[in-house]
Structure formats: C-alpha cells, structure tokens
Amino acid sequence: MDKIILSGMQFYGYHGLFPEENKLGQRFQVNVELYTNLKKAGESDNMEDSIHYGHVYDIIRKIVEGEVKNLLEAVAEHIAKDLLASFELLQACRVNVVKLDPPIPGHFGPVAVEIYREKL
C-alpha cells in the first residue's frame, strides 16, 4: 500500500489531565501516514485522484485546537476517525500525537501515542 506522510505539524491545544494543562495549554505535534493507492494519481497528475494535504491539515488542526480531551489517545482516535470518514480514497491511517513539553516531574523528552486504524 502506498502512503502519504505529513509530519511535524505543530498546534497549540489544551489537552491533558492536569488543570494547568487545560488552562495554560501546550504544544502538540502530529504526524500521520495515510495509506491509499497512489498509482492513479501518479499517472493522471490530478488532485482528484489523491488526498489533499491541506484538507488533512485542516481536519487535524480543528481537532487539536478544538475540544479538550484528557488523553492523547482520545485526540489520536478522533483524528483517525475523522480522516477515515473524510476521504473516500483513504484505506488506513497511522496517527502519532506528541506532547512536546509534558508537565511530568523528571528529565525526559516528549511523550507520544501512536495508533493505526483501517476502514472496515
């Protein structure tokens, strides 16, 4: 299966379990892999035969900057569900949501969840 990759998309959201996260917000990064057949698009050079990156970005931005979720898992699930419902050509997607500056005591880098979902 071919794939379209959008990586390093950053947004400001208010997701998290701690009240400070919901009040102050923080940076999130989203990376997605969109599984589809790109042969027709490659031969036709027609946008109608592929998945529009700009529309993918807009869907993800609205979710990450929108309704507050407690868990990264819920943010990732919402993204996958909306992407699969929005694009007829999309067969499956891998969604990686990263909390870049988690408010957890200790010294470490970002935390992330990654899910893979397919159309039924």
Automatic annotation (TrEMBL):
<comment type="similarity">
    <text>Belongs to the DHNA family.</text>
</comment>
<comment type="pathway">
    <text>Cofactor biosynthesis; tetrahydrofolate biosynthesis; 2-amino-4-hydroxy-6-hydroxymethyl-7,8-dihydropteridine diphosphate from 7,8-dihydroneopterin triphosphate: step 3/4.</text>
</comment>
<dbReference type="InterPro" id="IPR043133">
    <property type="entry name" value="GTP-CH-I_C/QueF"/>
</dbReference>
<dbReference type="Pfam" id="PF02152">
    <property type="entry name" value="FolB"/>
</dbReference>
<keyword id="KW-0456">Lyase</keyword>
<feature type="domain" description="Dihydroneopterin aldolase/epimerase">
    <location>
        <begin position="4"/>
        <end position="117"/>
    </location>
</feature>
<dbReference type="InterPro" id="IPR006157">
    <property type="entry name" value="FolB_dom"/>
</dbReference>
<comment type="function">
    <text>Catalyzes the conversion of 7,8-dihydroneopterin to 6-hydroxymethyl-7,8-dihydropterin.</text>
</comment>
<dbReference type="GO" id="GO:0004150">
    <property type="term" value="F:dihydroneopterin aldolase activity"/>
</dbReference>
<keyword id="KW-0289">Folate biosynthesis</keyword>
<protein>
    <recommendedName>
        <fullName>7,8-dihydroneopterin aldolase</fullName>
        <ecNumber>4.1.2.25</ecNumber>
    </recommendedName>
</protein>
<dbReference type="InterPro" id="IPR006156">
    <property type="entry name" value="Dihydroneopterin_aldolase"/>
</dbReference>
